[in-house]
Design goal:
4-stranded mixed sheet; two-stranded antiparallel sheet
């Protein structure tokens, strides 16, 4: 069975430990996170969750300012390909395709 969860986090950086606990204890296969408020100054290595691959679309990350930024964590047992050509960022829409 595939368990999917989405959270509007309003700043992921200081809540990563809680998020990690939610996905590992809840056997979540895929976790979508909106409003991470991260940018390219935060390396992916700082946002790792064991046994999960991180996907995000950095279209607006070069601004240096925190943006909504959508993150998706997928359990490593699933083979996933990120489709940046389908992903999009506008002032009103942030979308990532896997």
């Amino acid at each position: 069975m595939l368990y999917y969860t989405h959270i509007n986090i309003r700043s992921l950086f200081d809540k990563l430990e809680d998020i990690s606990r939610i996905v590992t204890q809840g056997n979540v296969c895929l976790l979508g996170i909106g409003e991470t408020w991260l940018n390219n100054s935060v390396p992916n290595s700082m946002m790792n969750i064991p046994y999960y691959d991180l996907y995000h679309f950095d279209q607006n990350a070069n601004s240096g300012k925190p943006t909504g930024e959508v993150y998706i964590y997928v359990h490593t047992k699933y083979n996933v390909i990120q489709r940046d050509e389908l992903s999009a960022w506008t002032p009103d829409i942030e979308a990532i395709w896997l």
